[in-house]
């Protein structure tokens, strides 16, 4: 599967007139969340999606805990995490500042060489600016059911991505499939997934 990109004109810099040079940007097909990852891992292993989601949440919590305690976190094959700090402006001497005045600024992430090497061979395709196709309800429902042939669970964001529609339309489609006994709602709040009903 290829990643899509679009070309954009570079903005002028330092008051100079733009030379019309272009730069490329990825056009994301979707945003993968923890529920989607849990389902994918579950489909490729003997673990259920709930167990995988619990492990991913525990994993995230431990990274936050270690960073809060002043440690760096290095994940082989993924990257290196560290915390940066900010001080009040105008400080020139150590005696002018106390610990309470220093605060969290950001999390720094340095991608691992392994990941960079793996991504260097990614396939790219130019995303054309053609008019977006407006799908009928029947087409959207069929697209969701086709997706569920690959994975048993689906999220609202995934329905939005595959049908290029708003959240309201995606939720209406999901509701329709639930009424037809083709989907079952599992979880609540931000952890909601919809499972394919096995007939």
Describe this structure in words.
The chain is built from six helices and nine strands. It has about 200 residues and is of the alpha+beta class. The strands form three sheets. Strands 2-1-6 form a three-stranded mixed beta sheet, with no helix packed on it. It has a three-stranded antiparallel beta sheet with strand order 3-4-5. Strand 8 and strand 9 form a beta hairpin. It is extended.
Protein topology:
Elements: E1 3-9, E2 22-26, H1 34-43, H2 49-68, E3 73-75, E4 79-86, E5 103-111, H3 113-119, E6 124-126, H4 137-147, E7 153-154, H5 156-163, H6 167-179, E8 183-186, E9 193-196
Parallel strand pairs: 1-6
Antiparallel strand pairs: 1-2, 3-4, 4-5, 7-9, 8-9
Which features characterize this protein?
199 residues, 35% helix, alpha+beta, three-stranded antiparallel beta sheet, three-stranded mixed beta sheet, 9 strands
The proportion of strand residues reads 15-25%
- Count the strands? 9
What gross morphology would you assign?
Answer: extended
User: Which class do the helix and strand fractions yield?
Assistant: alpha+beta
Kindly report the spatial arrangement of strands forming the biggest sheet: 2-1-6
Question: Uncertain spans, ≥5 residues at pLDDT below 50?
Answer: none
**Helix tally?**
6
**Major β-sheet annotation:** 3 strands, mixed
Q: Give the rounded overall mean pLDDT.
A: 87
Helix content: 25-40%
The whole-angstrom Rg is 23 Å
Provide the succession of SSEs: EEHHEEEHEHEHHEE
Give the N-terminus to C-terminus distance in angstroms.
31 Å
């Amino acid at each position: 599967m290829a990643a899509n990109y679009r070309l954009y004109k570079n903005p002028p810099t330092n008051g100079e007139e733009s030379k019309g040079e272009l730069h490329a940007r990825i056009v994301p097909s979707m945003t993968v969340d923890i529920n989607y990852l849990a389902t994918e891992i579950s489909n490729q292993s003997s673990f259920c999606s709930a167990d995988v989601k619990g492990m991913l949440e525990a994993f995230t919590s431990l990274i936050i805990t270690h960073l809060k305690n002043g440690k760096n976190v290095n994940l082989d094959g993924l990257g290196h995490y560290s915390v940066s700090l900010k001080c009040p402006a105008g400080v020139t001497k150590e005696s002018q500042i106390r610990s309470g005045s220093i605060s969290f600024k950001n999390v720094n992430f340095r991608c691992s060489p392994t990941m960079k090497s793996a991504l260097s061979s990614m396939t790219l395709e130019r995303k054309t600016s053609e008019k977006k196709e407006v799908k009928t309800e029947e087409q959207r429902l069929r697209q969701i059911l086709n997706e569920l042939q690959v994975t048993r669970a689906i999220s609202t964001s995934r329905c939005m991505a595959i049908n290029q529609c708003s959240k309201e339309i995606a939720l209406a489609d999901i509701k329709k499939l639930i009424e037809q006994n083709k989907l079952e709602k599992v979880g609540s709040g931000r952890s909601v997934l919809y499972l394919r009903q096995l007939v």
